[in-house]
Design a protein that fits this description.
Strand content: under 5%
Number of strands: 0
Helix content: over 70%
Shape: rod-shaped
Number of domains: 1
Number of helices: 5
Length: 142
């Protein structure tokens, strides 16, 4: 990655906390959908344009490096942004903040589907019992 010039490094604050990184990435983890290319676009908008954690050139270099490495580029870019902002804890915070919402959804959604399915089955059984009861009343009074 090409080093930033002294003038451009003055424009962008490099110090940050792991909590700041965690909250920034958790916001994206909850609200961003799509694949790695979409994530890279969200990261650019949030961390280059909006928060100015780094400039366009440094971000382009980071994305190029992460595209070259094996594995999902968006995960590598996210971890690297956190690492650059708040050190190793920042890298971990970025990964957890961006990944945890999806992991929670993957665990909870099957349970919610199961509960919904059980509620539908229960309703259907109640409907059948109601029909059976009505049938018995009709036969009893005829």
């Amino acid at each position: 990655m090409k080093a930033m010039t002294a003038a451009s490094s003055k424009d962008h604050d490099r110090s940050g906390s792991a909590v700041e990184v965690l909250l920034a990435f958790a916001k994206l983890g909850v609200s961003c959908f799509g694949g790695p290319i979409a994530h890279i676009g969200y990261f650019r908008q949030e961390f280059v344009v909006r928060r100015r954690w780094l400039d366009e050139h440094a971000y382009a270099d980071l994305v190029a490096l992460c595209q070259f490495l094996p594995g999902p580029a968006s995960s590598q870019v996210g971890f690297s942004l956190g690492l650059m902002r708040a050190g190793y804890l920042g890298g971990l915070a970025a990964w957890v903040g961006f990944t945890l919402p999806s992991a929670i959804a993957l665990v909870l959604l099957p349970f919610l589907k199961l509960i919904a399915h059980q509620l539908i089955e229960t309703r259907q059984r109640l409907e059948l019992m109601k029909i059976r009861s009505a049938k018995e009343r009709i036969l009893l009074y005829n």
